[in-house]
Design a protein that fits this description.
alpha/beta, seven-stranded mixed beta sheet, 45% helix
C-alpha cells in the first residue's frame, strides 16, 4: 500500500534540493535501498524514488546549453512539434533536434522567429541558424518559475532564429501535433467570436494560448477555468462515454449474432476513448493523472480483481512522478490531486444523500478541499465559486464538450456537420462568457483568500477544512463558521516597520515598499506585444503572496516600457488609492495618474515618503522625467531615482547634501538607469555613499547593464553591490532599531536547476 506513495515522495523530494549529489552518492542510495529491502521494504522505495529524481535531474541538466556558449550561433536541424503560437510579428515554436553543428547533446529548443512571412508548422523539418541561451527565468516570491517549466518540458535551450540563407524547409512529416494544428485551424474558421474559439481550442486540443489574459483571470476568479481547459474531469467523462458505448455495442452483438462480454468491451472502449482524448490534448498533467487512474481501474476490472481507492490514487501519484518529477512545484498538481482525493474518499461516504443534494454538496466539498492549496499559491477565487460550478459543470461537461469532440469525430466524414457542431458549441461558450461576465459581488465580500501566508492562517484553514469534513454525528462541525470569520479578518499588520523588495523583472524595474499597514509599488516592469507583462505575471503574484489586497499607492517613474509596461496588468488585479507618474502620460487607463512633483510628501507608519524630482516637466529626455522618491526611516534613507542621468544627479546634489548633513545615511540605492554609463556620476556617489546598491537588470542582456566601470565605482565607495540578474528578487527588511537584513531569492529558495 505505502510503496507507490513513498516512491512518489522520494522523486518529488528532489525538486526541493538546492543541488544534486554526485554519482557516487546516488550509487550509495541504490546500495542502501537494496540493503533496506531485506529488512523493511517501504523505505527502499523512498530511496529508489530519490535515485530516479536525481538521475532525471542529472540527465536534464546534462543536455542543457553550457554557459560559455550563450549568444553563440548554431546551425541546427530538427522537427517542429507542439502547436506554434503567433503574437504580433513573432512565432514561438518548439524544435526537436536531430542534428547540430556541434557535438553538444541538445534535445529540444524553445525558439522565436520574427517576421510576418514565417509560419513553421508541426511535423515540418527545418534547417535553421539560431542564437541560443541557457534556460533561465525570473525568481520572485510567489512568482511563476519559468525555468522549472522549461526543464519540465525538457528544453535544452531557448533562443531565436537568425536571418540567414541557411534557413530552409527540408520536409513535411505526419504527426499527431499536425492533426491538432489542423483542427485548430478548422475551429478558427467557425463563425463565433474570438473568446469562444479560444475556449473551444482549449477544450478540444488542449491549446490555451489564445485565451486572453482578461478572460483567463475572470474565469479563474469564478473557479471554472478547470472546466474550460482539458482536465481530469473531462478525461473521466470521456472514459465513461467510452465504457457506455462499448457496453452498448456488446449488447447489440449479443442480440444479433454471438455473445460478447459487455464489461470487457466497455473497458477496452473506455481506455481507447481516454487515450485518444489525452493524446488530442497533448498529454497535460491533469490528463496524465486521470489517464493513469482510469488505466488502473480498468486493469482491475479486466483482471476481475479489486484495487482499493488508496492504491489507485497511489499509482496515479507514482505515475505522474515518473513522467514529471517537478510536477509538485505547480499549483495545478495540488488542485488536481486534491479534487481527486475528495472524490475518492469523501463522496462515497455520502451515498445515503439524495442525488440532487449530493451534487451541490460535492461542489462545496471541492471548494473547501481546495482552499488550502489556493491560499498557499495565493490564487484568486470567488467565494461564490461552488454556486457557479453547480451550473457550469453540467453545462460544459454534458453539452459543450460532447459537441466539440463529436465535431472532431465527424469532420473526416462531413466537414459541414462538424462546422455546425462547433458553431453550436461556440455559441454556448459565447453565452457562458457573457453570463459569467455579469457576475458581481458586494465590495465588502472578499473575492479571494486575502490572508498573508503565515503559520496562523494555514493553521486556521486546516482547522476549518477538518471541521467541515467531520463525519456525521460528531459534534463541532459548526465551529468552522467563527473560524472562517476570524480568518477573513486576520490583522494584516506586518512584523517589521519597513520592507523594500526589488523584484526580478529582467530588463526593467519594479519595487514594492511595505510599511506595517501600507503598500507602495514603484514601477511595474516591462510589457510586451505578445500579451506578457510583469505587472500581472510578477508584481501581482508577489503582492498576493504578501497578503496585499489593497494597493495604497503606485508611483511610475516615467513612461518607458521597462518601467511602465506592466501598469495595465497590475491594474487588472488591484485598484489604486494614489497614482503618481513622472511622465506626462504613462498609460491610457483609468484612473488618470497625477503628475509627480518635487516637494510632494506623506507619512505612513513612521516612514516618510518625499518626491525629490521632477520640479517641472520641461525635460527633453524622457528618462530625466523620472520621479525620484526618497524614503526615510529613522536616520536611514532609501533612494529610488528611476532612469535619471548625471545631469539630474548634479541638480539633486544640494538636496542630497542637506539630507546627509542632517545625519541621514543612504542605506539603499537602486542604481539610476540600471547601472548605465550615463548615470552614477562620481560627484553623486561621493555625496550619498550608499551602503547597499541594487542593479535591476536582465541576465546577459544586450544593453550590458550594469556597466563594469559603474560597478567598480560603487565598489570603490565601499558599497555592497547586488544584481537582480544574478540574485533574483532582493528583499531588505528594517527592524525597529534601524538595523536591516537582506535576502536574495536565488539563495533563499535555491533549486538545483538555478
Amino acid at each position: 500500500m505505502l510503496s507507490p506513495y513513498l516512491f512518489a515522495a522520494g522523486i518529488f523530494s528532489v525538486a526541493f534540493w538546492s543541488q544534486l549529489p554526485p554519482l557516487w552518492v546516488i550509487l550509495l542510495f541504490v546500495l542502501a535501498g537494496f540493503l533496506l529491502r531485506r529488512f523493511w521494504a517501504p523505505p527502499s522505495f523512498l530511496l529508489l524514488g530519490m535515485v530516479y529524481g536525481c538521475l532525471w535531474g542529472q540527465g536534464i541538466l546534462g543536455h542543457q546549453l553550457p554557459d560559455e556558449l550563450i549568444a553563440t550561433d548554431f546551425t541546427v536541424l530538427g522537427e517542429v512539434y507542439g502547436i506554434p503560437v503567433r503574437d504580433g510579428r513573432r512565432v514561438q515554436f518548439n524544435l526537436r533536434l536531430e542534428e547540430t553543428t556541434t557535438n553538444l547533446k541538445l534535445r529540444k529548443l524553445r525558439l522565436s522567429w520574427y517576421g510576418d512571412q514565417v509560419s513553421p508548422q508541426p511535423g515540418q523539418v527545418w534547417q535553421l541558424q539560431v542564437r541560443l541561451r541557457r534556460p533561465r527565468g525570473y525568481v520572485n516570491p510567489g512568482g511563476f518559475d519559468y525555468q522549472a517549466w522549461l526543464i519540465q518540458q525538457g528544453f535544452s535551450a531557448t533562443g531565436y532564429v537568425r536571418a540567414s540563407p541557411q534557413n530552409r524547409l527540408l520536409e513535411q512529416r505526419w504527426s499527431l501535433d499536425r492533426l491538432r494544428f489542423q483542427l485548430q485551424q478548422k475551429i478558427a474558421e467557425s463563425h463565433v467570436n474570438d473568446d469562444a474559439q479560444a475556449l473551444m481550442s482549449a477544450l478540444t486540443i488542449g491549446d490555451r494560448s489564445h485565451i486572453s489574459k482578461d478572460l483567463w483571470y475572470h474565469l479563474s476568479l469564478l473557479g471554472v477555468i478547470h472546466l474550460l481547459v482539458v482536465s481530469g474531469l473531462h478525461i473521466g467523462f470521456v472514459a465513461a462515454m467510452g465504457y457506455g458505448t462499448g457496453s452498448l455495442l456488446a449488447r447489440c452483438f449479443i442480440l444479433i449474432c454471438r455473445p460478447v462480454n459487455a464489461r470487457y468491451t466497455g473497458a477496452v472502449f473506455s481506455l481507447v476513448f481516454a487515450l485518444s482524448y489525452s493524446a488530442l490534448a497533448g498529454f497535460s498533467l491533469p490528463t496524465q493523472r486521470a489517464l493513469i487512474m482510469v488505466m488502473a481501474a480498468l486493469v482491475a476490472l479486466l483482471a476481475n480483481r479489486y484495487i482499493g481507492r488508496a492504491m489507485i490514487f497511489g499509482l496515479a501519484l507514482a505515475g505522474v512522478a515518473l513522467i514529471d518529477p517537478l510536477a509538485i512545484m505547480g499549483a495545478g498538481f495540488w488542485l488536481s490531486f486534491g479534487a481527486v482525493a475528495g472524490l475518492l474518499w469523501l463522496v462515497p461516504a455520502m451515498n445515503q444523500i439524495p442525488k440532487w443534494r449530493l451534487f451541490f454538496r460535492v461542489q462545496w466539498l471541492m471548494f473547501l478541499l481546495l482552499i488550502l492549496p489556493l491560499a498557499v499559491w495565493q490564487l484568486p477565487v470567488a467565494w461564490y465559486s461552488p454556486l457557479v460550478n453547480s451550473v457550469a459543470i453540467p453545462w460544459v461537461s454534458f453539452l459543450v464538450v460532447p459537441l466539440c469532440l463529436l465535431g472532431v469525430v465527424i469532420i473526416p466524414l462531413s466537414p459541414v456537420v462538424a462546422e455546425w457542431l462547433w458553431w453550436l458549441a461556440g455559441k454556448q461558450l459565447e453565452w457562458f462568457v457573457l453570463l459569467t461576465g455579469e457576475l458581481t459581488v458586494p465590495a465588502w465580500l472578499p473575492l479571494y483568500s486575502p490572508w498573508p501566508l503565515t503559520g496562523l492562517s494555514l493553521f486556521l484553514m486546516s482547522c476549518i477544512a477538518g471541521l467541515v469534513l467531520l463525519p456525521r454525528g460528531i459534534p463541532g462541525r459548526y465551529l468552522a463558521i467563527p473560524l472562517a470569520v476570524a480568518l477573513c479578518y486576520l490583522p494584516t499588520a506586518r512584523q517589521v516597520p519597513l520592507t523594500v523588495t526589488v523584484l526580478d523583472v529582467g530588463q526593467g524595474l519594479s519595487i514594492v515598499v511595505q510599511t506595517r499597514r501600507h503598500t507602495l509599488v514603484y514601477d511595474t516592469g516591462p510589457g510586451y506585444a505578445g500579451g506578457y507583462d510583469a505587472g500581472s505575471a510578477l508584481v501581482a503574484p508577489f503582492l498576493r503572496r504578501q497578503g496585499v489586497t489593497v494597493l495604497d499607492a503606485l508611483v511610475v517613474s516615467h513612461s518607458d516600457n521597462d518601467h511602465a509596461g506592466g501598469v495595465a496588468g497590475l491594474l487588472r488585479h488591484y485598484s489604486l488609492a494614489v497614482w503618481l507618474a513622472g511622465s506626462p502620460a504613462v498609460e491610457e487607463t483609468a484612473p488618470v495618474p497625477e503628475q509627480c512633483r518635487a516637494g510632494q510628501s506623506w507619512r505612513w507608519d513612521d516612514v516618510e515618503f518625499r518626491i525629490l524630482h521632477p520640479a517641472d516637466s520641461r525635460q527633453k529626455n524622457n528618462n530625466n522625467h523620472s520621479c525620484v522618491l526618497a524614503i526615510s526611516y529613522l536616520d536611514q534613507v532609501i533612494l529610488l531615482p528611476g532612469d535619471i542621468d548625471a545631469s539630474v544627479e548634479h541638480r539633486l546634489l544640494p538636496q542630497l547634501e542637506q539630507m546627509v548633513a542632517g545625519k541621514k545615511q543612504v542605506a539603499l540605492l537602486v542604481a539610476p538607469h540600471h547601472g548605465s554609463k550615463t548615470s552614477s556620476s562620481k560627484q553623486f556617489l561621493a555625496v550619498i555613499r550608499p551602503q547597499q546598491v541594487v542593479f535591476s537588470a536582465a541576465y546577459r542582456h544586450h544593453f550590458g547593464h550594469p556597466a563594469e566601470p559603474v560597478v567598480q565605482r560603487y565598489l570603490m565607495q565601499g558599497s555592497t553591490v547586488w544584481n537582480t540578474a544574478e540574485q533574483g528578487a532582493l528583499t531588505f527588511r528594517w527592524q525597529d532599531n534601524g538595523e536591516f537584513s537582506t535576502t536574495a531569492q536565488r539563495t533563499e529558495a535555491r533549486r538545483y536547476w538555478f
